[in-house]
Specification:
It is a single chain. With 94 residues, this protein is mainly alpha-helical. It has one domain. 73% of the residues lie in helices and 11% in strands. The protein has a two-stranded antiparallel ribbon. The radius of gyration is 22 Å and the shape is elongated. Keywords: Membrane, Transmembrane, Transmembrane helix.
């Protein structure tokens, strides 16, 4: 039986945890934006305020989504490139 093992170095581990923490931070930021947008829409007193809040929330979410995806591409590539070398371990099964 063959098993593939990859071991990251110290820099690779830092990059991997940065990627994970970035995604968690962006998720919290997106959820807080959605919550505040809902609160703004509930506090709107007329149709113009309601429409303005909806447009503002859409633009803010779009910008956040763009930042998130750009960060995922850059950090994801770094995580991919900092993987350890492939080591194949062979075990004899009886």
């Amino acid at each position: 039986m063959k098993t593939e093992i990859r071991r990251r170095g110290a820099f690779g581990k830092i990059v991997k945890w940065t990627f994970i923490l970035f995604n968690l931070l962006m998720l919290v930021w997106m959820l807080s934006t959605c919550a505040s947008a809902g609160e703004m829409m509930n506090q709107a007193q007329n149709d113009a305020e309601h429409v303005g809040a909806a447009i503002g929330a859409t633009v803010a979410s779009g910008v956040q989504l763009f930042i998130w995806m750009a960060g995922v591409v850059v950090l994801g590539a770094m995580v991919l490139f900092t993987r350890g070398k492939k080591l194949i371990v062979e075990e004899i099964v009886q």
